[in-house]
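Q: Structure tokens for this one, please.
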Amino acid sequence: MSAEGAGPGRPPARPSDHPAPRPAPSPLRRSVLVGLYAPTLVFAVGVGAVVPIIALRAVALGADVATAGLMVALLGVGQIAGDVPAGTLAARVGDRRAMLVASALAVLAFAGCALAPGLWMLAAGVLAAGAASSVFGLARQAYLTEVVPVLARARALSTLGGVQRIGAFVGPFLGAGVVHGAGLPAVFWLAAVTSALAGVVVAVVPDAAGAESARRRGAAPVPLHRVARDHARVFATLGIAVLAVGAVRAGRQVVLPLWTEHLGLSPATTSLVFGISGAVDMLLFYPAGHVMDRRGRLWVAIPSMLVLGASILALPWTTTLAGVTAVAMVMGLGNGIGSGILMTLGADVAPPAVRSQFLGVWRLLADSGGAAGPLLVSAGAALGSLAAGISAMGVVGLLAAAALGRWVPRWSEHANATTRRAAAAARVDAGPDADAGPRARPGADAGSSRAERLSADGGAGAPRSSP
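A: Here is the predicted structure, written as tokens:
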């Protein structure tokens, strides 16, 4: 016990004696903040512009409907395939250089799509674009985690998620104007230009990382298999929740258009409903981050999944345009209040020494869940009941809320006020050597549970899991 925690006539320190820290404003300059988010916005605009055009470009090159759908799916396949290599690349060359590599690869990929004389070149370009998007997203997340104070982390990462959603929302409208004026290939040239512009901004904005971050960049990267082995328990527990969240979020984008088609609504009406849901989604990213920083991650994570899961469960009960629109807005609310939650949790639990490799596996879990979600809905429809497939996806949302409630307090000290007080008490009890945190101790088992690590430091034991 430290001298501050005990003494003559003074009781031992208890978790309740150490209030949860309040969020602090970020000390980063405005120019640096613009440099952090502007590349993400312009990159997302380009990707968002080409997503609806990929299938049309494939059809123009002679593909049938099934092949055109496969071409669109290759973008997600490229993202999944690029997640783990993205972490390895960022660990070897640094986050900023990885973003520059991703920008250059995206320029080449989109140019290849624009110039493609046939389907094979288009497929290669789309696959490479997905991989570039994965590298850029991981490196941006890792870099933000480094340079932003921990008590402003959720606001920073939820804003990053919000900026990506804004870009994805604006991109198709910009792409539609380009197609009208210059044809399908011109949209891919637009994406190439936005990718190059993102790389230029990354290159010219000063590096905001500190000396400690620079020291870690110079260290030899840890092999990926060792990262996966050392943190296997995190991936096998909290990783299951990440899979479920990714599945529900991706499933949301499938169940809505499928159900509107089932009700006989026109494509234009479906697009309008989807746009309304997306608008609600985009309005909430910063308030969500503020709540996560001030109250803890569970105050957003659990309500997000409960609202999203319940609204998906309610969708098969709707029979009118008004009902579908109301449920779609609630879906947008549930998804919007969870903006940045997976990135924030990943940043919380990723050890600084192997952050990029860890986040590569983390994003692989999230993207794999995103690929599995639509398959679950499709399986229900193939078995003869679209409503059953949609309902199964809603149940996954409720299970995701339960998994987050069970595992986030074990691995993140920022789960809620209780875990923050317990972690603060553990550091006080352990003395000055605890300032660097348990993950920074040489020889610490980064794969052990949070409660075990607190106990090993002389801490207060396992925290409660209530929000």
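A few notes: Residues 30-60 form the longest helix (31 residues). Residues 222-467 form a domain with the Growth Hormone; Chain: A; fold (CATH 1.20.1250.20).
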